[in-house]
Amino acid sequence: MSNETKNFYGLDGIEFIWHGEWADPEVEYEGRRFNYYDLEDPLWEIFREERETECQPVNEDEFPGWVRQNRALAIEILENLMSPA
Fold first, then answer.
1. Which residues, in sequence order, are bridge partners of residue 16?
2. Which of 23, 54, 56, 84 is the most exposed place for a label (fewest CB within 10 A)?
3. 54 by DSSP, 3-state: which?
């Protein structure tokens, strides 16, 4: 099976790369690849914390829409991953 690519949660400029069931997916941004979970996990934590702070239930079905509304945050996380430690 060849690699499938599409946008990460529909965000232009951030490609989702699927390697099959036995390998972690990746995201590609500005020609650099990162482990998918290095982007999704911090976004999920921020989403969860916002919901808890606002005393709202954490509904994972709302997460994709929240990610699309917070593209700048996803870019910020990727930019930080690109920065030397």
1. 6, 27
2. 84
3. coil
Contact, 40 vs 47, CB < 8 A? Answer: no
Q: Scanning the structure block, which residue is given the tokens 């529909």?
A: 10
pTM above 0.85, yes or no: yes
Measure the CA–CA gap between 85 and 69, rounded to whole angstroms.
28
Judge contact between 32 and 82, C-beta under 8 A.
Answer: yes
Q: How many residues does the chain have?
A: 85
CA terminus-to-terminus distance, the chain: 36
Question: Which backbone phi and psi does 43 adopt, to 5 degrees?
Answer: -65, -45
